[in-house]
Amino acid sequence: MNRVSDPSPAEGVRQRNLARLLRLVHVDGPLSRAALTEATGLNRSTIADLVGRLVDEGLVEERAPDPARRVGRPSPVVVADPRVVAVTANPEVDALTLAAVGLDRTIRLRERIEVDHLLSPDETATLIADRITAWRAGDLADARIIGVGLAVPGLVRAADGLVRNAPHLGWIDTPVRDLVAHATGLPVAVDNDASLGALAEHLFGAARGVDDVVYLNGGASGIGGGLIVHGMPVAGAAGYAGEFGQNRPGIAASADRRAEGGVLEDEVSRAHLLEAVGLRAADEPTLAAALAAAGADPGVAAELERQRRILATALANAVNVLNPSVVVLGGFLATIAAHDPEGLRAAVAAQAMDSTADDLDIRVASLAEDRLLIGAAESAFADLLRDPTA
Predict the structure, then answer these.
(1) 280 is in which domain, residue-wise?
(2) Could you give the percent of the chain with pLDDT greater than 90?
(3) Does a structural domain hold residue 203?
(4) Which residues cross the membrane (predicted)?
(5) Which of 20, 55, 80 is the last residue of a domain?
(6) pLDDT tens-digit series, residues 148-201
(7) Which residue in 199, 333, 359, 377 could disulfide with 101, CB within 3.0 to 4.6 Å?
(8) In terms of pTM, does the model score above 0.90?
(9) What is the 3-state secondary structure (H, E, C) of the chain?
């Protein structure tokens, strides 16, 4: 039996340097060769050789230097090739949202397919495959699709991508990764939606450059969370860390409780907000606009205040345990926070230990409704970024 030999030490170093350069232009955006030389400590001829290899692999492009830069020798600008894309999907109880995300972080295509029933895993795989086929015949005719990334609202086993439990979708021990791979013929990565949202906001959004972050995501299926500790995502032993929505917050006023013995996502709920503004379903911008338009309505204002009080208690518990420097809120939680950001921070600080709340910053997810899709793209790009020549 033939075996592929391990790379020599020199080849291993070259592979790591290629991965380092590709990751730099992916995460930081267009960079000149001079900037890459400074960032890596490698010499100019080595950078030129590595960039040339990435160009040959179809992963980056070199563009003319900025004409406004008149000091010193002009240096070509290296950019991730926008034709290298990941197709990403976020199945929810009311819709399947898909996107084509470029290696240069652009959203080339985005589509929301609303449904009036719970998507089955097989239907989800078929819809994704159908959209890829259609996109390849149209807007993605020039694209190199690296793989598919799925952001699932539920527990996803890190070892093999098995969806152990997505309760709102009714998926139990479902091999979604294998189903989508079979339907599309592409490599597939699956992870919890909130964990991917945390990764995206840490790399590109509101928590960029922050080492200790608590992220909470509010979606149609409830509330999930993600953690960044010392700059690294924390998944837990099996990949299930961050399920803040299943915690039971203390609720001081009995009138605030909607579900006896309920967990956080039973009380702080997108469904309650939709009901308050008289909508059956809506995407995030539509819900935010409806809440803003109904801001003077006493019932809507009361529901927002009720949810903000309970959310503040849950956040205070997280701050006491994890001592983050930044809390990022996404989805409908971002909408709740945006109605009174200073009031929410004050309510959290009032219930947290003084020391943990001293420099706490609560931020709204800056990637907005693209955060989960961008995070899913990161999971699809992971192998490529580890080894650009594989």
Answers:
(1) 208-366
(2) 86
(3) no
(4) none
(5) 80
(6) 999 999 999 988 999 999 999 999 999 999 999 999 999 999 999 999 999 999
(7) 377
(8) yes
(9) CCCCCCCCHHHHHHHHHHHHHHHHHHHHCCEEHHHHHHHHCCCHHHHHHHHHHHHHCCCEEEECCCCCCCCCCCCCEEEECCCEEEEEEEECCCEEEEEEEECCCCEEEEEEEECCCCCCHHHHHHHHHHHHHHHHCCCCCCCEEEEEEEEECCEECCCCCCEEEECCCCEEEECHHHHHHHHHCCCEEEEEHHHHHHHHHHHHCCCCCCCCEEEEEEECCEEEEEEEECCEEECCCCCCCCCHHHCCCCCCCHHHCCCCCCCHHHHCCHHHHHHHHCCCCCCHHHHHHHHHHCCCCHHHHHHHHHHHHHHHHHHHHHHHHHCCCEEEEEEHHHHHHHHCHHHHHHHHHHHCCHHHHCCCEEEECCCHHHHHHHHHHHHHHHHHHHCCCC
